[in-house]
């Protein structure tokens, strides 16, 4: 069996995507806490030794460092035969939602949540802009989930794991009450959390936490 080491920090939804995928596939990993808040990923040494792209997460597979969450999720889905697609049409739909999430939902939510909760001083106008964009994207997802149990049908895929990661964190971090504002998203998050083996991020990703200034 492969030996996994996951370089992460607990607030990283992208790290959570890989941690959850491995867990749901029955695998364990060695957690490698990274001082993202302290700026270690921006140092030349870390980028030389760990990830030249300067990003978290990094997944080591039998000592080989691998990066970029979306292709890693697809690789794990193929490797374990779980949370993937079966038909050509399903594969297209999975990629469609996965890429949309990376570009729109995760892309904006990760930045907005970090600025809102984990930055001591932020620009209210910038936050307002990001929230307005997020409300658009969340409305798109909520509308889709009003007619679909999961991203591409009746079963969860890596597209669901990717899209739900940042949305499941506490509301005092991202500032949304999905039960009120987006009930279809709220119900979908509940379906994901009911999946056997599911665990929240702060349980899968231990270690020192950053200060939450939004509390």
Automatic annotation (TrEMBL):
<dbReference type="InterPro" id="IPR010987">
    <property type="entry name" value="Glutathione-S-Trfase_C-like"/>
</dbReference>
<protein>
    <submittedName>
        <fullName>Glutathione S-transferase family protein</fullName>
    </submittedName>
</protein>
<dbReference type="InterPro" id="IPR036249">
    <property type="entry name" value="Thioredoxin-like_sf"/>
</dbReference>
<dbReference type="InterPro" id="IPR036282">
    <property type="entry name" value="Glutathione-S-Trfase_C_sf"/>
</dbReference>
<dbReference type="InterPro" id="IPR040079">
    <property type="entry name" value="Glutathione_S-Trfase"/>
</dbReference>
<dbReference type="Pfam" id="PF14497">
    <property type="entry name" value="GST_C_3"/>
</dbReference>
<keyword id="KW-0808">Transferase</keyword>
<dbReference type="GO" id="GO:0016740">
    <property type="term" value="F:transferase activity"/>
</dbReference>
<feature type="domain" description="GST C-terminal">
    <location>
        <begin position="87"/>
        <end position="214"/>
    </location>
</feature>
<dbReference type="InterPro" id="IPR004045">
    <property type="entry name" value="Glutathione_S-Trfase_N"/>
</dbReference>
<feature type="domain" description="GST N-terminal">
    <location>
        <begin position="2"/>
        <end position="84"/>
    </location>
</feature>
<dbReference type="InterPro" id="IPR004046">
    <property type="entry name" value="GST_C"/>
</dbReference>
